[in-house]
Amino acid sequence: MNTNPASSIPTESNPLIIAKFGGTSVADYAALTRCAHIIENNPATRVVVVSAAAGVTNRLAALSAGITDVAERERLLTEIMHIQHGITRELQPSPDVNAQLRDYLADMARFSTLIAEQKGDGGTPDALLAMGERCSSLLLAELLRQREVRAIDFDACQVIRTDSHFGHAEPRPKRIGMLAAEYLQPELDDAVVVTQGFIGADAAMRTTTLGRGGSDYSAALFAEALQATALEIWTDVDGIYTCDPRQVPTARPIPELTFAEAAEMATFGAKILHPATLLPAQRGKIPVFVGCTREPEKAGTWIRNHTESRPVCRALSVRRGQTLLTVRSLNMLHARGFLAELFAILARHRISVDLITTSEVSVALTLDPTGSHSSGRRLVTPQLISELEKHCDVAVEEGLALIAVIGHQLTSTPEVASRLFSMIGARNIRMVSHGASPNNLCFLVQEDDASEVLQTLHRGFLEG
Ligand SMILES: Nc1ncnc2c1ncn2[C@@H]1O[C@H](COP(=O)(O)OP(=O)(O)O)[C@@H](O)[C@H]1O
Ligand SMILES: N[C@@H](CC(=O)OP(=O)(O)O)C(=O)O
């Protein structure tokens, strides 16, 4: 083992890469084999962060909400077991690994029952959600060992320290840096470390989760803590596209992006990256690569501080299922402190506000499910409404989609807004936010109009 701390700092001649593989990349044995190829092909890949196999977290999330119907619980648990056994049938793990997997599956059943019978505590849902990632790291480490790669399955909870907000825990980067130096760094000279994304532990070592899609965030936190030379996000598309290719078939991969652009894309709905992922990478000045596990030879996308090209319009994003909250109060007129009170109420409900427009007596705002405690429509609870109604009239509109044009100098390029509005033509725009950032121009439309608007804007701004 290397005991000289100076030699453990990654440099150009001693590079350290963190590779993260998402749910589709670890979905079955063939997919895991592709991950192993990528890891073996680059000896600088020392830390591998994995998500749960595709479909597992969705089922665990359903169980973690508390399913009282025993047959339904068993159905979901059996489906999860089939996914894992589909892998082990071909992997043929050692008896120890098999026993560990059995324990994990038994834990899933135990936690699900505790939650359904309301016998768990606040941390039980997160302990359950974490099991999907635990299965993946166990099995990928085993596959690597079978292929003569020294690999260990490392518990991310040893390093990813968070607060105790179960379901949406906030990481503690300084503490994570210290714990990584103590527990993770010493392992790196001897083995490829395979660990779990999405999960961490609070100060009392209770398992927490970072919010859906949080494995990217974990990988970036590991990269920052270890001062990695690069972070690789391996997924099912060959890079970040000009728009979600599932929504706009003519979208194409973007060779390079700035952190600011990628962050805007992630925030405004490009599901390919968790919105918080880029913060630790950017803080640590670590370039991020996004590539396709099935086609690793493809160019992918590099996210860096600076890029050579700076087009006015780089990409489009969409976030469906948006909620618009409009509050109206005559007391707002020439009053001070109304907005402060409004935001204090939203903060108490752990709701993060997204877009905001104001008039003399009303404020319209969209709620950000990604930065908030809960998700989607559940953000607007009866308690929130009744608290707000003490101060103002409240209207809630749902079924909206937020579309964002992402690029550079959008606030100082005159023709962008005029072209956009003429392209959209007859579609009703419910709200516009333009001016706060030179990197985005966003607006709300009816969800049913979103696909057509996206395709039209893509043709107008990004094709030809
Ligand atoms: N701008 C975009 N570029 C590429 N993919 C996008 C974009 N916006 C959304 N996506 C979607 O993100 C998906 C990958 O994210 P995700 O399913 O979370 O992967 P993983 O399971 O690997 O984490 C792609 O299949 C694609 O449909
Ligand atoms: N498995 C978790 C964490 C995650 O990031 O998954 P993926 O990398 O497949 O998006 C989820 O589904 O939310």
TrEMBL record:
Q: Which InterPro entries match?
A: AceGlu_kinase-like_sf (IPR036393), ACT-like_dom_sf (IPR045865), ACT_Aspartokinase (IPR054352), Asp/Glu/Uridylate_kinase (IPR001048), Asp_kin_monofn (IPR005260), Asp_kinase (IPR001341), AsparK_Bifunc_asparK/hSer_DH (IPR042199), Aspartate_kinase_CS (IPR018042)
Where along this sequence does the record place binding of ATP? K20, F21, G22, G23, T235, D236, Y241, R246
Aspartate/glutamate/uridylate kinase domain mapped to chain residues: 16-290
From the UniProt record, list the reaction(s) this protein catalyses: L-aspartate + ATP = 4-phospho-L-aspartate + ADP
GO CC field: cytosol
Annotated binding of substrate, by residue: T57, E133
Output the Gene Ontology terms for molecular function. aspartate kinase activity; ATP binding
Q: Which Gene3D superfamilies does this UniProt record tie to the protein?
A: 3.30.70.260, Acetylglutamate kinase-like (3.40.1160.10), Aspartokinase, catalytic domain (1.20.120.1320)
Record pathway: Amino-acid biosynthesis; L-methionine biosynthesis via de novo pathway; L-homoserine from L-aspartate: step 1/3; Amino-acid biosynthesis; L-threonine biosynthesis; L-threonine from L-aspartate: step 1/5; Amino-acid biosynthesis; L-lysine biosynthesis via DAP pathway; (S)-tetrahydrodipicolinate from L-aspartate: step 1/4
Record EC number: 2.7.2.4
Which GO terms fall under biological process for this protein? homoserine biosynthetic process; lysine biosynthetic process via diaminopimelate; threonine biosynthetic process
The answer, when asked if Kinase is one of the entry's keywords, is: yes
All copies of the Aspartokinase ACT domain together span: 403-461
The alphabetized UniProt keywords are: Amino-acid biosynthesis, ATP-binding, Kinase, Nucleotide-binding, Transferase
Q: SUPFAM superfamilies this protein is in?
A: ACT-like, Carbamate kinase-like
- Give the top-level enzyme category: transferase
Q: Which PANTHER family match?
A: ASPARTATE KINASE (PTHR21499), ASPARTOKINASE (PTHR21499:SF59)
Q: Which family does it belong to?
A: Belongs to the aspartokinase family.
Protein's recorded name? Aspartokinase
**Gene from which this protein is expressed:** lysC
